[in-house]
C-alpha cells in the first residue's frame, strides 16, 4: 500500500489515504519574481498542486518572499550545498524544503536546518539523485547506493527527532529507480515523491516516465509524482494528470479507441482527436470512459463498459450511453451527433 504516514505541505495532506499529489518545478530565474509567479500560477491552473523552485543563494531569498506572497499553492525550496539558504527559505515562509544528501551531509548543518524546520513546521524532502551520490556508497549497486544515500540522511533527521520527512531516490534509469524505491519502501514508511530524473525531451520522457512511474504506482509506491520533461513544465503537469487518470488513480475522462485495422469503417483517428479536443478542459469528479471503436467486432463489447461509446459499421455507426444502445446514425451525421451528446453530457 502507499505510505501510511501523513505529512502536511502547506494546506495539503500527503500520504495515508490522501489522493496522489502532482508536482512540477519552475524553470524561470527565481530572481525574476514576475516570470516565476506567472509560471507557478500557470502550473497551478494546469493541475499542479505543489511547485518546487530553485533557491540557489542568499540573494534569492528576498525574491522568494515576494513569490510566496503572490501565489496560492505550497512551494518547495530546492536547496543545494549551502545550509544557510535552507534556513532562510524556511524563515521566508516556504512550505517545504528539499535537500540532497550528496550535497549537504555535515551533521551540524543538518541539525541547524532541523532546528528551524521544527520551529516553522516545515517538512524536509531528502532527495537523492544518481548524479550526486555520497562517495561512501559508490562501491555498491547503483540502486542500493541511491537508496542508502537517502536513508542515511533520514536516520540523521530521526536522530534529531524530526519525522516530517519525504524521500525521493531518482535515477535516469527506470529499473534502478524502481529497485531503489522498493528498497526504501521496505525499510521506512515516509511519503515518497517519485519520478524519473533527466528523462529527456517530451516523447522520450513520456515513455520512460510512464514505464518507471507507472511500475511504482502499480506496486503501491508513491505519494507525489513529477514527470520530468526538458522544456515547458506545463507539459509535466498535463502528462502527470493524464497518467494518473489512465491508471485509474485520479478521477477524469479516459478516451478509449481501437488501433484500427482492415475492418475499420469510420475515421477513428480524426474522430478521437475531436473528442479529446472537446473534453480536454472538462473537470469532473467521476471516472468517465468514452470509447471510439471502428467496427462491430469489439465495439459493442467495449460499449458495455463505457459511459459514451461509438461502434462503426459499413453504413452507420451505433451510439451507446451507459452501456446501453442509444441509436444508429448515418456516418455523415456521426460527428454532429457526438458533439451534441458531449456538449449536453452531465460531467459532474
UniProtKB/TrEMBL annotation:
Gene Ontology biological process: isopentenyl diphosphate biosynthetic process, methylerythritol 4-phosphate pathway; terpenoid biosynthetic process
Protein name per the record: 4-hydroxy-3-methylbut-2-en-1-yl diphosphate synthase (flavodoxin)
Pathway connected to this protein: Isoprenoid biosynthesis; isopentenyl diphosphate biosynthesis via DXP pathway; isopentenyl diphosphate from 1-deoxy-D-xylulose 5-phosphate: step 5/6
Cofactor(s) the record lists: [4Fe-4S] cluster
Catalytic activity annotation: (2E)-4-hydroxy-3-methylbut-2-enyl diphosphate + oxidized [flavodoxin] + H2O + 2 H(+) = 2-C-methyl-D-erythritol 2,4-cyclic diphosphate + reduced [flavodoxin]
Upper lineage: Bacteria, Thermotogati, Thermotogota, Thermotogae, Petrotogales
Entry keyword annotation includes rRNA-binding: no
Native source organism of the sequence: Oceanotoga teriensis
Enzyme class: oxidoreductase
Residue ranges of domain IspG C-terminal in the record: 255-343
GO terms, molecular function: 4 iron, 4 sulfur cluster binding; 4-hydroxy-3-methylbut-2-en-1-yl diphosphate synthase activity (ferredoxin); 4-hydroxy-3-methylbut-2-enyl-diphosphate synthase activity (flavodoxin); iron ion binding
Domain IspG TIM-barrel: 5-240
